[in-house]
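Title: Comparing notes on inverse folding

I've been comparing how different people in this forum approach sequence design from structure. To keep things fair, I'm posting one structure and asking everyone to reply with a full sequence. Here's the target:
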């Protein structure tokens, strides 16, 4: 096996690892249908079908390292708990489907469990249907600036259509498909798509169709202008005018996977999950990188910022909660933030070398002491040579420099061999 080396700040290191392992780690595996993280420490999960009058949720108070089961005694009859959302770590909703035996079969109605104290106590509500032709359920819960907004549906029969419930309002959909794709910033700004595209700035009472829209699986808006939508065959769409017209820009994802979910934390940084893959962008979607490959389907991504991100990955064997780990190099080397005697002064320069027989993709990022990215110093391809970069950060202080290099020779590239990946993190003091 060929080897490579990069001289990073005077340190020579050899490495070979999976990019997926480097960026994402499995925190917990179980029968999970949905996750919600209102902050960097507190998270909630739900899923599965109970066979008695009790429900079950899972929670963590250490960012997902450990999870505790909480039983919701007498929450309801036979039901499927499908979705969960929290606004703050104590105020939450769990939604699902209530099953009831009726003449000629079974009917399902929507079911909602709410709490203001972390499910120490809770209340239930729902709509129980009486005919086996009827159906219902709560499909999605989203945290917004106004609190929690949920969507559900209830059908009167297979021929007369169904009623869509969103933010406490009912909309008759006739025989149209149930709209599982919707996004809301608050109770005023909302978007919905299911063959037609809907947008409102005054609440759901004014939710009217604007134009025909492509079939998508999920969409996300970070403000009233910038939004993204994802679909099958690697489809990613983008609007910078709030979706007011039908001209959405088609972005190149670089993959053909079916994409199921999208989450942005600002107008530049976002993730997309789908069948077997997690994609990441740092420039609003112009460039996407495959950040992880997974054995199942990523159906949900929760992100607080560019550091605290979780994903729900489901296979035929069950579900796993994945945690984004951008600073794994720091964690491997010691405490974070570092102690004073671990600091390294490098005279405001970042220097390294690339060997002569390797094709190398380089990413250099500077983080502050809280682990937040402050500057991408370089991102691109470098060949043989010695390189020195000077950060553009003007504020003096203590930072981290993280260098990631994907290396392989021309021979290895042509033969399709696995790439060598090196990640190295060093501490520095900027004094200007």
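Reply #1:
Here's my take.
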């Amino acid at each position: 096996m060929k080897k490579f080396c990069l001289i990073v700040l005077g340190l020579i290191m050899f490495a070979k690892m999976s990019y997926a392992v480097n960026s994402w780690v499995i925190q917990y595996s179980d029968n999970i249908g949905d996750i919600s993280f209102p902050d960097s420490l507190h998270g909630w999960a739900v899923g599965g079908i109970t066979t008695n009058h009790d429900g079950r949720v899972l929670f963590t108070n250490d960012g997902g390292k450990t999870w505790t089961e909480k039983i919701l005694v007498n929450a309801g009859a036979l039901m499927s708990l499908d979705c969960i959302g929290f606004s703050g770590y104590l105020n939450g909703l769990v939604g699902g489907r209530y099953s009831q035996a009726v003449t000629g079969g079974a009917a399902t109605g929507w079911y909602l469990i709410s709490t203001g104290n972390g499910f120490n106590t809770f209340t239930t509500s729902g709509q129980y249907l009486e005919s086996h032709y009827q159906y219902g359920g709560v499909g999605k819960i989203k945290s917004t600036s106004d609190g929690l907004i949920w969507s559900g549906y209830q059908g009167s029969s297979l021929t007369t259509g169904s009623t869509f419930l969103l933010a406490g309002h009912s909309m008759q959909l006739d025989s149209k498909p149930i709209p599982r794709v919707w996004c809301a910033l608050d109770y005023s700004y909302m978007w919905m798509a299911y063959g037609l595209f809907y947008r409102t700035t005054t609440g759901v009472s004014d939710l009217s169709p604007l134009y025909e829209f492509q079939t998508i699986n999920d969409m996300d808006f970070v403000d009233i202008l910038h939004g993204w939508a994802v679909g099958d065959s690697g489809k990613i769409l983008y609007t910078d005018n709030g979706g007011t017209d039908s001209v959405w820009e088609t972005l190149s994802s670089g993959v053909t996977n079916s994409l199921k979910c999208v989450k942005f934390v600002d107008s530049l940084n976002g993730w997309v999950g789908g069948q077997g893959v997690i994609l990441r962008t740092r420039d609003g979607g112009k460039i996407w990188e495959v950040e992880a490959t997974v054995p199942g389907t990523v159906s949900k991504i929760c992100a607080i910022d560019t550091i605290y991100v979780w994903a729900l990955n489901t296979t035929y064997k069950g579900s796993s909660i994945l945690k984004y780990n951008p600073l794994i190099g720091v964690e491997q080397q010691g405490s974070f933030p570092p102690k004073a005697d671990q600091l390294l002064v490098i005279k405001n320069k970042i220097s390294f070398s690339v060997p002569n027989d390797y094709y190398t993709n380089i990413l250099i990022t500077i983080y502050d002491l809280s682990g937040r990215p402050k500057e991408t110093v370089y991102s691109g391809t470098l060949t043989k040579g010695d390189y020195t970069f000077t950060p553009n950060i003007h504020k003096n202080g203590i930072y981290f420099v993280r260098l990631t290099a994907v290396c392989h020779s021309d021979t290895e590239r042509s033969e399709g061999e696995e790439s060598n990946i090196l990640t190295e993190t060093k501490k520095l003091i900027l004094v200007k």
